[in-house]
Amino acid sequence: MTENREHWGSRFGFILAAAGSAIGLGNIWKFPHMAGQHGGAAFTLVYLICIIVVGLPILLAEFAIGRRTQLNPVGAFKALSGNSQWKWVGLLGLGAAFVILSFYSVVGGWTLKYTYLALTGAFSTFSSENNVAAQVFNNFISDPIQPIFWHVLFMGLCILIINKGVKGGIERWSKILMPLLLVLLLVLVVRGVTLEGAGEGLRFLFAPKWGDLDAEGVILALGHSFFTISLGMGTMITYGSYLRRDTDLLRAALSVIVLDTVIALLAGVAIFTAVFALGQDPAEGPGLIFVVLPTLFPLMPGGAVFGVLFFFLLFVAALTSAISILEVVTAYFIDEKGWSRSRATVTFGTIIAAVGVFASLSLGDFNVLAPLGDLTFFDMLDGLSSKYLLPIGGLLTAIFVMKRWGLTNFMEELQAGSAWFKLPQRLVWGFFLVAGLVVAYILFDEVLGILV
Ligand code: PHE
Fold it and tell me: Residue 3: inside a domain, yes or no?
């Protein structure tokens, strides 16, 4: 264990930072629009089952691997496997970090732009009849300059925070930003449920109609459970590596999962109550929050203020997730290559920002993938990461614990710092097996779907 490794200042700080990583665009942007398109409550239930069955064991595995080794994902797999090829699982995670952050920070930039639009009162000119909001959104994201400006600003903020280190940067900001997020969201939920006709939105989100759930919805719900808890690319290994051995990993993992789920559901309540109360379409798709909500805010009493709150909240959530992705890359170059923190952060933050420029341009007239068909570079980065890289990384992590590191070693790490009764090893083994099988099934189904 390295003596001079940075550590979290407190257990609470660690939980907020890990929750800050988990809670992001996945909860507030992706979850509501996917639920809206794939059967509402039925989708929500499948997603919840996946979080427990797949998310919990893999989150525990990542925390344990990180804390045991006190290393970045590549170093961690190397250390626990006797320098074997398992290091590739860590490298795959590093690749995923590049892929995810380069499109994630583009959307992070959109949240900044929409906070600015809300502040300047621009939403008051939006009305649902002539689709002004949709035009504004589409013109903005396809513009060659504007979204890049906001994207670069967003990445700049990430670099600044990561540069400050674990305790002074990530933990400090998570402790300020995460409670703020919860408060803002609660305000919006109260606003939503007190709108006339809100009940229909609640029924849509919580009363399942199984007929509405399609096969694609099941697959998406499974894949999303990885994305939303930041699993499968070593983020939670990295955050676990800044822990001392006195933290109860099971309690921390349960806290992160509960917080992440509660925030996704609260976001769902805030959004669908408003969508239904004001007669909008829940299946609008990825534009749900950028197109539908700005149209709704001017129609609500106090909407100008709620508009600012909502987009600022989304920006906060995106920022605390984005920094956790950049930290994976930073930790690797510090631990394995001996780089300074600032050199690693600035270099790779800049490279990722540059890739992101192409992701953003691909939504307008310059798509590097154009010769291959309709797919944009932006969508490719998104699909590649949540459909393949994260589930593959998660599956390999589960296999690693069962086959290479060994369940006994894993259990020993899990119990350290735990005040809980001893979990039976067989039960834990069963959980890992089921998690592995479920993920293997999703991947198989996906690949089969492409081949036939
Ligand atoms: N969990 C984050 C979200 O829901 C995204 C993320 C994915 C962060 C993978 C880190 C690693 O928005």
Answer: no
Residue 4 resides in a domain: no
**What is d(CA 160, CA 150) in angstroms, rounded to the nearest whole number?**
15
Burial code (b: 16+ CB inside 10 Å, e: under 16) for 107-141 equals: bbbbbbbbbebbeeebbeebebeeebbbebbbebb
Structural domain that includes position 262: 11-451
Per the structure, how many domains does the chain have? 1
* Low-confidence stretches of the chain (pLDDT beneath 50): 1
Residue bearing the CA closest to ligand 1, atom 10: 230
pLDDT digits (tens, 9 = 90+) for 319-366: 989 999 999 999 999 999 999 999 999 999 999 999 999 999 999 888
Ligand 1 pocket: which residues have CB below 6 Å? Answer: 21-22, 24-27, 100, 227-228, 230, 233, 235, 321, 324-325
Indicate which CATH number applies to the domain containing 214: 1.10.4160
- Lookup: tokens for 131: 């689709």
Ligand 1 center to 228 CA (angstroms): 5
Could you tell me the distance, in angstroms and rounded to a whole number, from the CA of residue 420 to the centre of ligand 1? 29
Ligand 1: which residue has its CA nearest to atom 9?
A: 230
Is 286 within a domain?
yes
Ligand 1 atom closest to the CA of 227, numbered from 1: 7
